[in-house]
Design a protein that fits this description.
about 375 residues, alpha/beta, nine-stranded mixed β-sheet, six-stranded parallel β-sheet, 13 helices, about 40% helix, globular
Length: about 375
């Protein structure tokens, strides 16, 4: 087992720098090469890390025999072509969320993983949150009984990238980002719920998207806004599960009651974390000493640190210390839901999983 996992960074923009910062706190990880089309920025980041190998063409990085895995931190429609090329070059791939820009491209990534035998993982921090791990324990122990309803909900009052004053316009251009609020933020909450439900098959989606909150018109024009600020859906999942989704970059409401799951014996609100049930013919809402439990679990379970964060897990998997938690499969399912929302909005009706698959086309961009 290697002492260090040797990682090549592909993309060191805003998100890439965040990933780099996380690796700095993981002693078992070492960034050994960087690729970015912005050569000056790539060299600046490399100098901070003491990395000497810098490329403007990611294919040159993939030729390095000592790079075990790559971290793909590019805009959504670049995820598929770069990740597939990396797996075909014999590298394991850790990819920023969402998995791709379309279900068709995500499918190509999953197929490339099967074809090459490489590992593929999608970054999604919520799956490794304390609340998610606590909920998973309650579900696995039967405290919720038969799961039949879930809700994924998150609001920003006025938090659209670029047009509301932060981030770049790449986040709001469909050609680059493929989607807006659903892909940028919705994925965190949708994938979290799919993980807790066991990633059931998507049967139907009835959804809608909206762009209604006023924005600075000069920012709309210069940003070339072409994505959604709000998405909502009712998704029917295998096993008789109803899944309600609402995700807003901008909405004129004070807040949301958050993500939840309900079963025949009990339910969970994820934030703030509560367990809801009936005992002695009395309704009860219970809290937990989660920090104390988390400390104990770290002390008694030797491999528990491998689930502290998405990147820690990825490094532990590379070292053979943990079995891969398949966030790429969760991301694949999320892509079907998101595209189902867009297709349902376009057609004005509920759509089936088969219809979503048939309608999906590649939006991948090449030329890096």
């Amino acid at each position: 087992m290697a002492d260090k996992v040797r990682i090549g960074m592909i993309g060191v923009g805003q998100i890439g720098k965040s990933h780099v910062g996380q690796y700095k706190n993981i002693p078992e990880a070492e960034i050994v090469a960087i690729a970015d089309v912005n050569e000056a920025e790539a060299k600046r980041v490399a100098a901070e890390l003491g990395v000497t190998r810098v490329f403007t063409n990611f294919h040159d990085l993939l030729k390095l025999s000592d790079v075990q895995a790559v971290d793909v931190c590019l805009h959504n429609n670049f995820h598929a072509p770069v990740s597939i090329a990396a797996m075909e070059a014999g590298k394991d791939v850790y990819c920023e969320k969402p998995l791709a820009g379309s279900w068709a491209d995500a499918k190509a990534m999953i197929e490339a993983r099967a074809r090459t035998g490489r590992r593929l993982m999608m970054q999604v921090a919520t799956v490794f949150a304390k609340e998610t791990k606590a909920a998973k324990r309650l579900i696995d122990e039967g405290a919720l009984g038969k799961l039949y309803y879930a809700k994924s909900s998150s609001y920003r009052r006025r938090g659209r990238p670029y047009v509301d004053g932060y981030g770049t316009s790449n986040f709001v251009q469909k050609e680059i980002a493929a989607g807006g609020a659903m892909y940028d933020m919705g994925i965190y909450h949708i994938v979290q719920i799919l993980h807790l439900l066991g990633n059931p098959k998507v049967l139907t989606v009835s959804g809608a998207t909206h762009n209604e909150v006023p924005m600075y018109e000069d920012r709309r024009a210069s940003g070339k806004w072409s994505v959604e600020e709000f998405g909502v859906a009712l998704v029917r999942l295998e096993g008789g599960i109803s899944f309600f989704i609402e995700e807003a970059w901008a909405i004129n409401l004070g807040g949301t009651d958050g993500s939840k799951l309900a079963g025949s014996k009990g339910g969970i609100t994820l934030a703030p974390f509560q367990y809801h049930t009936t005992i002695g013919d009395m309704e009860m809402n219970a809290g937990f000493e989660m920090d104390a439990a988390d400390t104990r679990w770290h002390q008694v379970n030797a491999d528990y640190t491998a689930y502290d964060s998405c990147q820690k897990h990825w490094v532990a998997v590379q070292q053979g210390k943990a079995k891969l938690l398949d966030t790429a499969a969760l991301g694949f399912s999320m892509m079907k839901i998101a595209e189902g929302i867009f297709l349902s909005q376009k057609l004005g009706r509920e759509v089936t999983g088969d219809e979503i698959e048939k309608a999906s086309v590649s939006t991948a961009l090449k030329g890096l």
